[in-house]
Design goal:
By secondary structure, this protein is of the alpha/beta class. The protein contains 25 helices and 10 strands.
Amino acid sequence: KHIGCVCIWKNSRLKISTKRTDDSRPTNIFCIRGQFLTTKEKFHELLDSGVKCPNDDKASDNAVPKETTEDSLEEPQEKKFKVDPDEQERTRKRDSKRMRGQNKSRPHMKPTSYDNRRLCPSIIQERETKCVYGDKCKFIHDVAEYMALKPADVGEHCYLYDTFGKCHYGLSCRFARAHISADLKNLANEERVKAMEGRTPVRNSLDKDLQWRLRKKVVPFTASDAYMKTVFKGGHKAGEGWKKAATVSQENLALVKTIGPLTDADVIKLRQCEKKQCGNLPFRRICKRFGADITCGEMAMCTNLLQGQSSEWALLKRHESEDLFGVQVEGCFPDTMTRCAELLNNKIDVDFVDINSGCPIDLVYKKGGGCGLMTRTNKFEQIIRGMNSVLDVPLTVKIRTGVQEKANIAHKLIPEMKKWGVSMITLHGRSREQRYTKSADWDYINTCSQLASPIPLFGNGDILSYYDAMKARETEVSGIMLARGALIKPWVFTEIKERRDWDISSSERLDVLRDFTHYGLEHWGSDTQGLEKTRNFLLEWLSFMCRYIPVGLLEQVPQRINERPPYYMGRDYLESLMASQHVGDWIKISEMLLGPVPKNFNFLPKHKANAYK
């Protein structure tokens, strides 16, 4: 348990020798070297001034803080009335409860609101025929008028043009000067275009014909309907015929469709899982580049998929670099989940389908989905048996330890799920009530992995470093899944694979963010709408990434995922900027990569990160 590690990183400017001697340090105390520690006022003063030397304290004692100057110009506050202490305490508790979790009342600015006057697609795509809407078209048809209204270009080089040989966004591209001629024609690199012929970088798109048939409810679900006829109308248990077909004896467990348990000789499998708003396709490409073995899409609602919603089907898209990819679905009824599984089996290319029965949010739980399925075992059994009967790929399940904090039930469910026919189980070591405020229970995960054998069980929770992964590997899990850890530092996959700490520099981290913006522009588009959507997802990611503390600043490694760091100065200005948890500083980083924000830009992160106590 006591690991001593000496890490000499060849490509880093700083050679570090750090030792991890024990795990006895107090919770929520960061061992940051004294020369980097600072106060909140000095930290924000540095970022506002833009000074390049963070450790040189040149601030004058007579300097007036910026906040004081601004406050002196404001009108005095209104007179406050005396409030009953008991009422004030009740109000405080109610407000604090309301402010936990997600920013549900945050402003939702659609990317289309930043580009009200858009060019007609018929002109962007250079169609030979005129716009079918004629004078009733709501878009601009005058190219000169559009170019006068269009925001300034962001850069000199277009990633789409350099990669594919042609940018399909033409005049609307925010990097248009790289591929637009003097007579406003969209240029193409014929050699590059020819080299990309026949290649499909992204699969699992929703075609218009299937969307129309789903909306009209004319898609046949033959296998699903046949299964549902075997389920009792009372909805208590699955039909006996399907039970016998799906029940697997102990002698034949090896025949179950599984991804496969790992031996000691194998490298532990790393799975980057869903994280709504952040586990998107461009981010998964970053994770694959750093060494993730398995990727899983964001959670999709089965009812929305069956209705043909484009936004929900976008969560199923798969990039060509994702060699082992699965989709995750959520639902609470056997008929819709079975139909959804049959639809996915016939229409998209995946390696496994995952049931999210670990989602803790109220919207899902209160209608019986997510964690609610763990307490509705009859429905849970019908869902698993039904989906397994219509799928040609393995069916996996993600669960938590339970619903209540001190009432674990996963150990009771796992032997049953083995009988129901699941191929793999992922266990998050917290209950629904705990959310992310307590440490994951890896001892309980180890117990459950023994119960699940020989079916693979992946453990999940609090993996942020190589040390955490090695400690998890001491258990009998077949692999580990990362979610928050990958968002905070996606290079954690490289650290685990190479068994070392990576003191990654701020410039290298900025290059990672730049690659993400390139992938985002490829996925969402290089016009104003796509660019601002990329910026929004980048800012959501930065709300997690700002929690990372560089290894070279730590007195004692590793960083723990739930520890709240004090204010500290980085080794350069960019490193300090990346450590800020202020939205305005995240926007500064986005402007380095995607240009200035629109005048009416507004952003508030979805997650409040209440894991920090």
